[in-house]
């Protein structure tokens, strides 16, 4: 039962990934949109506690969604209690920054809110008359993205028991299904959690497809002349569009691991679009 509570009821302090070194992950710099979401959600909870009109206006009730469509987003900023808020925000703090850095700030926000909206919509099938609040669906979406990019990253339950990120996603999915379909419900919208996973999965698959199409266009066409770099390019990744950032990172990692000579002509030409002018030399005809 303790494991069920830790995995399925939001005891996020015991589910933090411990990278190497561990403290560098726990005190990972907070990225811009993670910071905005933290302050916005905590501020909304403060308003919820001080202004009686906030909760009834912004709570999500599935059967009222057509009359109150804004609530499929606003419910993510309300919470059922202080500990509910704290655990969700700790989950966002531990998992969010690395996911935002990997996806880019804009895609991270899309991931977060698509997960929350999908969680709300999936609740139409299981909790039609319930009042649903909390950022859990968005947090579950961020957790799935973390497992998507770092599937073997160890996450320590109770700070002791290591479990791979992808295994954690599988376990929490099974527990949510079991709890919703006849196990322990405990006023928890388990299908909203699963909706968070579903929304994040579909969005990440769409991003992969979009990036794959872009890379196909970028590398197709007539043969290219090999571009000569005088040194490893000093690429400013903040200026690289998120559609291209993953491929640029892959090429830079390849240079670090195997040297400039390991690049194909297509990779050199692709990288030249983002390298400073003084780092590259035009090919000789």
Compute the number of structural domains.
2
Structural class: mainly alpha
Major beta-sheet overview: 3 strands, antiparallel
Task: Describe the oligomeric state of these chains in a short phrase.
Answer: single chain
CATH architecture of the largest domain: Up-down Bundle
Strand content: under 5%
CATH topology-level fold name of the largest domain: Rhomboid-like fold
Uncertain regions: pLDDT < 50 for 5+ in a row? 1-25, 221-226
Tag the structure with descriptive keywords.
2 domains; single chain; disordered N terminus; Rhomboid-like fold; 5% strand; 285 residues; three-stranded antiparallel beta sheet; mainly alpha; 58% helix
Q: Could you characterize the architecture of this molecule?
A:
The structure is a single chain. It is built from 12 helices and 5 strands. It is mostly helical and 285 residues long. The termini are far apart.
Summarize this structure briefly.
The protein is built from 12 helices and 5 strands. With 285 residues, the protein is mainly alpha-helical.
SSE inventory with pairings:
Layout: H1 2-8, E1 16-17, H2 22-26, H3 32-50, H4 54-58, H5 71-74, H6 82-103, H7 105-122, H8 136-149, E2 154-157, E3 161-164, H9 165-180, H10 190-219, E4 228-229, H11 242-258, H12 265-272, E5 280-281
Antiparallel strand pairs: 1-2, 2-3, 4-5
Helix pairs in contact: 3-6, 6-7, 6-8, 7-8, 7-10, 8-9, 8-10, 9-10
């Amino acid at each position: 039962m303790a494991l069920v509570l830790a995995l399925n009821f939001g005891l996020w302090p015991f589910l933090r990934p411990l990278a190497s070194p561990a403290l560098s992950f726990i005190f990972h710099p907070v990225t811009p949109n993670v910071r905005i979401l933290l302050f916005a959600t905590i501020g909304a909870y403060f308003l919820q506690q001080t202004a009686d009109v906030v909760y009834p206006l912004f709570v999500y009730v599935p059967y009222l969604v057509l009359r109150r469509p804004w609530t499929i987003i606003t419910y993510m900023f309300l919470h059922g209690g202080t500990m509910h808020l704290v655990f969700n925000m700790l989950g966002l703090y531990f998992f969010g920054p690395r996911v935002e850095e990997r996806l880019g700030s804009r895609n991270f926000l899309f991931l977060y809110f698509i997960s929350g909206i999908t969680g709300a919509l999936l609740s139409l099938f299981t909790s039609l008359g319930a009042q649903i609040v909390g950022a859990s669906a968005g947090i579950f979406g961020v957790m799935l993205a973390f497992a998507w990019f770092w599937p073997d990253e160890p996450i320590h339950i109770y700070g002791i028991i290591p479990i791979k990120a992808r295994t954690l996603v599988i376990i929490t999915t099974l527990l949510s299904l079991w709890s919703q379909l006849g196990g322990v419900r405990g006023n928890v919208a388990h299908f909203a959690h699963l909706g968070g996973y579903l929304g994040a999965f579909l969005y990440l698959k769409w991003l992969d497809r979009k990036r794959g199409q872009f890379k196909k266009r970028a590398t197709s066409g007539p043969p290219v002349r090999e571009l000569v770099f005088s040194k490893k390019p000093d690429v400013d990744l903040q200026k690289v569009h998120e559609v291209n950032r993953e491929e640029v990172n892959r090429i830079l990692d390849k240079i670090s691991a195997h040297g400039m000579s390991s690049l194909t002509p297509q990779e050199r030409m692709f990288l030249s679009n983002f390298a400073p002018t003084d780092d590259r030399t035009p090919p000789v005809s």
